[in-house]
Structures are given as structure tokens and as C-alpha cells.
């Protein structure tokens, strides 16, 4: 089902969104037959309730969607989507009950109920279509939904069909869709053009490593997005246990998220100059794999001691960040499924991020609240800098001890971002359960908050 709004028509069924506490008062204003039908069908207005109310001649005269209470809604997201998933096929038009400040987010949630990953098995999302309310910017919501669907498809696709070459093809297709410029540096050419750490991490794979670059826009502030594109992570010679590999197809979730955000930016025609950099590799095991104890010399010239080949994401990001900084953009944002420490700290549903820019942090926090896309700031804690400084190289990719792993990884990356304004997101990019508008599988994190905050992050 396309994630777009339905055309308005007289056939659209009026939809009343009703909180549990408001149901009695609402019923008092309805004809007796309506009140009796609601009572007979046990509709109470709780979250996820959905009910069609028939007319005397048989067709639906209206639909009801339960909206629970503010306390219940605070425990999840996309409250209206829970009811939308239960409504039968048809076109619905909101008639009452949805607060103005929640319109865009709830409409987006409704559109996303139509998403289903059906590449390998015939399946479908919800079939109830929604007419865009007049107060909603329909094009904006549809662009966000399309960006989210794109990244979900990328993350959900197994590495057999989403290796570095297929990720390149997906990025190239996105560039062509929006008239953006695209290039790729592949294989041993990485060494010739000075991306030694991207090459080292990906050289053991049968699919060569690569650096993907997309640029769009010719005016406005410069924004560079850098996404970790590790299409599968075995852990390298520091091999992961089998159970830890089960979700490693999603280790390119950072790349998927920046591509989803890039689609939103380009589709909405934001006034900025966009650059997207994706180091796309597979961290595989072979005779030429990089080893624990190796010293790698980065693009920036800093040497890195490899104390764990399973801490490879920061290595490939480092070379890409060094390239990003050379262009002196107004803002660099990196996104990566980087550390288990971030999950331990904040769980899977909150996107941790790092920045030294207080204004950017304030703008992002406010934006995240407006669009219900939770993020939480973690510190670039200066005293931990010594943890990433080994004895025989400039930097250590995996400090011993395991404490503050998300922070030490972020500090490592900051060394390569130079003097640019920099934000780093350590995301999970996966929904572990079937939730309203977020089925089990790949999902976006932090990108709607970033899109919402963009006018404050990059003032024209």
C-alpha cells in the first residue's frame, strides 16, 4: 500500500477520535441509535479501540477511534495508528477529537500503518486510508513517510541482497530520483585516494569496500551526513558469537537513516547544500582480514591501534569524517549502530546523541518533543579522552574495561571531525516488537527530530 493520503471524496467516512473520559459526553450528543450501537459493541475509547457505526440503510455513517488518556498515550507513540490498524478497508476523514499539535505526528503514524516488508513473503500493512486534514502539510508528511519506508526496506533486507554493492545501487537510485550527484570509490582505489581504514575493514569480503558520496543543492548552509554502512558484521577475527550475528544485517542502519533523512530533505526542497558520505563495507573473515594489534594510519594521519576488530564501525566512519571536515561544512551529523553500551544506557527506543553545541542540543530536544521522536544527549566527557590513547599509537579503537563505551566511541569519532560543528547519533534502528506504525524490524531514529530542528540547526 502506498504511504500516501487518500483523495477527499463524499465517500470518505467521518472519523471521531474519542478519549475514554470524553466518551460519555460525546454519546449524549448523538442519536439514541448511535449510543446504543456503541454500547452494544463495547467501545470504551481505550487506545486501539475502533468501531464502524452503521446507518439505517446499512453503510457506515461514521467511525470511532479510541484515544485512551494522556497518561496511556505517554507510554507509546502513534496512538491513532493503533485504531487505524483495526479499521476495515476504506477512506476515513477526521471529523473531531485530534488536538492540533498532534495532527502531523498522528497522520504520519496512520500512513506508516500501511508499511509492510514484502520482498520475500506476500504481506501487507493496514488498508484503512486517511484523507489529509486541511491543517496538515500533506506533502511533508508523505515525504517523511517515504523516507521512513526507504530506510526500513534497506535495514530489513538481508545482506545476501543488501551488501555494499546493493547499498551503493540504492543510494545511486535515490540520487537519480532527486537529481543529485553521485560517485563511489571502490576496492583498492580507496587506498590510492587515502581511505586506508575503510579499505582495511572491508578488504576481507568478497564484495569490495567502498565510499559512497551524494551531493545535492547549490545554495544555503552546508550539511554533511555520514552514515555507517557495515552491511554485515561478523566481528572480524574477534568473531561474534552466533547469537550476536542474528541482527547484523542492520549494522548499516546508520547509512539507511541518513539516506532516509536525505530523501526527506531533497523531497521537501530545503534550502541547504547536502552531502551524504557512506563507507559501505562487510566486516568479514579471511586470510587478509585486519588483525587485533594492527596499527592503521587514518586519512587524517592519526594512527589507530586495533584492539578489537569488532569495533570496526568507528574506523570506517573516521575516514569518512576526515573527508567531511575537509570541506568545512556548517554541520556534520554522523549516524551509526555503533555500541551496545548505548543500548544498555538508554534501551532500544531512545536515540542517544552527542554534541558540544548547546544551541543545537536545545533545538533538537524541543523538536524531538514536538514530533515524538525521542532523543537523549550524552556527554563528550573530556576526562575520558585518555581512555582512547594507547601507548604505541595515537588512538585505541576499543579501550579496555568496557566502561562508558558509547562515550569513548564518540570521543574517538570527534577526533576526526576536526573543528566542524558535529553531532553524533549512536542508534539501534530496530523495533524489537510489533508496535503501532512500527512493525518488528528496521526503523528510523532521530531523523524526524533532526528534520524538525533543521531551521534552528542550520539557519539560512
TrEMBL record:
InterPro entries: Leucine_aapep/pepB (IPR011356), Macro_dom-like (IPR043472), Peptidase_M17_C (IPR000819), Peptidase_M17_N_1 (IPR048816). One of its GO terms (biological process) is proteolysis. Keywords: Aminopeptidase, Hydrolase, Manganese, Protease. GO terms for molecular function: manganese ion binding; metalloaminopeptidase activity. Residues 308-315 form the Cytosol aminopeptidase domain. Gene3D superfamilies: Leucine Aminopeptidase, subunit E, domain 1, Zn peptidases. The keyword Coiled coil does not apply. GO terms for cellular component: cytoplasm. It comes from the Bacteria. The keyword Transcription does not apply. Belongs to the peptidase M17 family. This is Leucyl aminopeptidase. It comes from Pseudooceanicola lipolyticus.
Amino acid at each position: 500500500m502506498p504511504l500516501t493520503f487518500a483523495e477527499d471524496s463524499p465517500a470518505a467516512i467521518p472519523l471521531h477520535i474519542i478519549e475514554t473520559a470524553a466518551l460519555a459526553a460525546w454519546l449524549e450528543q448523538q442519536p439514541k441509535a448511535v449510543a446504543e450501537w456503541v454500547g452494544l459493541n463495547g467501545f470504551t475509547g481505550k487506545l486501539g479501540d475502533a468501531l464502524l457505526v452503521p446507518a439505517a440503510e446499512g453503510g457506515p455513517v461514521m467511525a470511532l477511534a479510541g484515544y485512551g488518556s494522556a497518561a496511556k498515550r505517554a507510554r507509546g507513540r502513534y496512538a491513532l495508528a493503533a485504531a487505524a490498524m483495526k479499521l476495515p478497508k476504506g477512506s476515513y476523514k477526521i471529523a473531531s477529537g485530534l488536538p492540533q499539535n498532534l495532527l502531523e505526528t498522528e497522520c504520519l503514524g496512520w500512513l506508516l500503518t500501511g508499511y509492510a516488508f514484502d520482498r520475500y513473503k506476500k504481506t501487507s500493512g493496514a488498508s484503512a486510508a486517511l484523507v489529509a486534514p486541511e491543517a496538515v502539510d500533506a506533502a511533508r508528511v508523505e515525504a517523511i513517510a517515504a523516507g521512513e519506508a526507504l530506510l526500513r526496506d534497506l535495514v530489513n533486507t538481508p545482506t545476501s541482497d543488501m551488501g555494499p554493492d546493493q547499498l551503493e545501487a540504492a543510494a545511486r537510485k535515490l540520487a537519480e530520483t532527486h537529481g543529485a550527484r553521485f560517485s563511489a570509490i571502490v576496492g583498492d582505489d580507496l587506498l590510492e585516494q587515502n581511505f586506508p581504514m575503510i579499505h582495511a575493514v572491508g578488504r576481507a569480503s568478497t564484495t569490495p569496500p567502498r565510499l559512497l558520496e551524494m551531493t545535492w543543492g547549490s545554495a544555503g548552509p552546508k550539511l554533511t551526513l555520514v552514515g555507517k554502512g557495515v552491511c554485515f558484521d561478523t566481528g572480524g577475527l574477534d568473531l561474534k558469537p552466533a547469537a550476536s550475528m542474528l541482527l547484523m544485517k542492520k549494522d548499516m542502519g546508520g547509512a539507511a537513516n541518513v539516506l532516509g533523512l536525505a530523501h526527506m530533505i531533497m523531497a521537501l526542497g530545503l534550502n541547504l547544500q547536502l552531502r551524504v558520505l557512506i563507507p559501505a563495507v562487510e566486516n568479514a573473515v579471511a586470510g587478509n582480514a585486519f588483525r587485533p594489534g594492527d596499527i592503521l594510519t587514518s586519512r587524517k594521519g592519526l594512527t589507530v591501534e586495533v584492539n578489537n576488530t569488532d569495533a570496526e564501525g568507528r574506523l570506517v566512519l573516521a575516514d569518512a569524517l576526515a573527508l567531511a571536515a575537509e570541506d568545512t561544512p556548517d554541520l556534520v551529523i554522523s549516524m551509526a549502530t555503533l555500541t551496545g553500551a548505548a543500548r544498555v544506557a538508554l534501551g532500544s527506543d531512545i536515540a542517544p546523541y552527542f554534541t558540544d553545541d548547546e544551541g543545537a542540543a536545545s533545538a533538537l530536544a524541543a523538536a524531538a518533543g514536538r514530533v515524538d521522536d525521542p532523543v537523549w544527549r550524552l556527554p563528550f566527557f573530556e576526562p575520558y579522552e585518555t581512555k582512547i590513547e594507547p601507548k604505541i599509537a595515537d588512538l585505541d579503537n576499543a579501550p579496555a574495561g568496557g566502561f562508558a563505551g558509547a562515550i569513548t566511541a564518540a570521543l574517538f569519532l570527534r577526533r576526526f571531525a576536526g573543528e566542524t560543528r558535529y553531532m553524533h547519533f549512536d542508534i539501534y534502528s530496530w523495533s524489537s516488537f510489533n508496535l503501532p506504525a512500527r512493525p518488528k524490524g528496521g526503523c528510523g531514529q532521530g531523523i524526524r527530530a533532526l528534520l524538525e530542528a533543521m531551521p534552528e540547526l542550520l539557519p539560512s
